[in-house]
């Protein structure tokens, strides 16, 4: 995908550069400190995802959003601001998401899930939640070595990108039995190894003591809330 971040704070631009290179390393991402610098790039490069600070010198983010929405019918504006009181104004200009400072990579990933004009990414994994939970890679069913790994992955899909702690996973899968920590690690390794074999290892977001999935890299069909009933979780 092509994105541009507009913010007069160089620290925010550096942070967004780091996040976007993690989220979409094969994409094209621009970072500028003024709306005027951004306009030519948006026009010439066909950028349609704009991360925009609300308070900008010269032209405000509000005015910039009005201009961009009028000029381009298919554009997604994601406001990034330290002021929550701008939320109503952001809604009035039909922004796709509203991210408040300080923010982290998960906040940006989540914002990208709610684009008005979704981008087409090459998604290795396809997940179906309509009848029974199932996972496919390039049209072929994904088979984990350990049976419970499928349920583990199903819970991460149910979380829709939110990070789950190891304690939370043990609570869901084994009713909080702390003796299952080693077993959990084996299931996570099984999942990681399986995805590694099919070239989908970047789907997993692994942090110390927690794990999640990158929903931007997964095509999900069906209602994820039905996963709870299928596996009988008591949440």
Q: How would you sum up this structure, described in words?
A:
By secondary structure, the protein is α/β, with parallel strands linked by helices. Helix content is 40%, strand content 21%. It is built from nine helices and twelve strands. The strands form three sheets. It has a five-stranded parallel beta sheet, with helices on both faces. The longest helix is centred in the last third of the chain and has 17 residues. The two termini are 36 Å apart.
Topology summary:
Layout (H helix, E strand, L loop, with lengths): L1 E5 L3 H14 L4 E5 L2 H11 L3 E5 L7 H11 L4 E6 L5 H6 L4 E4 L4 H8 L12 E4 L5 E4 L2 E2 L6 H11 L5 E2 H9 L6 H17 L6 E4 L2 E4 L4 E4 L4 H6 L4
Parallel strand pairs: 1-2, 1-3, 3-4, 4-5, 6-12
Antiparallel strand pairs: 6-7, 7-8, 9-11, 10-11
Compose a concise summary of this entry:
This protein is α/β, with parallel strands linked by helices.
């Amino acid at each position: 995908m092509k994105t541009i971040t507009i913010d007069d704070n160089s620290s925010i631009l550096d942070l967004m550069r780091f996040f976007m290179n993690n989220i979409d390393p094969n994409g094209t991402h621009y970072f500028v400190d003024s709306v005027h610098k951004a306009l030519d790039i948006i026009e010439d490069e066909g950028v349609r995802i704009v991360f925009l600070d609300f308070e900008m010198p010269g032209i405000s983010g509000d005015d910039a959003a009005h201009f961009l929405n009028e000029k381009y019918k298919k554009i997604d504006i994601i406001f990034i601001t330290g002021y929550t009181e701008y939320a109503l104004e952001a809604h009035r200009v039909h922004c796709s998401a509203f991210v408040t400072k300080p923010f982290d990579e998960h906040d940006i990933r989540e914002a990208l899930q709610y684009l008005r004009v979704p981008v087409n990414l090459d998604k290795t994994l396809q997940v179906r939640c309509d009848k029974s939970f199932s996972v496919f890679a390039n049209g072929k069913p994904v088979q984990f070595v350990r049976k419970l790994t499928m349920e583990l992955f199903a819970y991460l899909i149910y979380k829709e990108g939110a990070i789950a702690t190891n304690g939370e996973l043990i609570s869901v899968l084994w009713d909080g039995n702390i003796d299952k920590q080693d077993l959990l690690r084996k299931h996570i390794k099984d999942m990681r190894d399986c995805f590694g074999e099919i070239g989908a290892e970047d789907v997993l977001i692994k942090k110390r003591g927690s794990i999640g999935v990158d929903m931007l890299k997964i095509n999900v069909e069906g209602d994820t809330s039905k996963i709870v009933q299928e596996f009988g979780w008591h949440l």
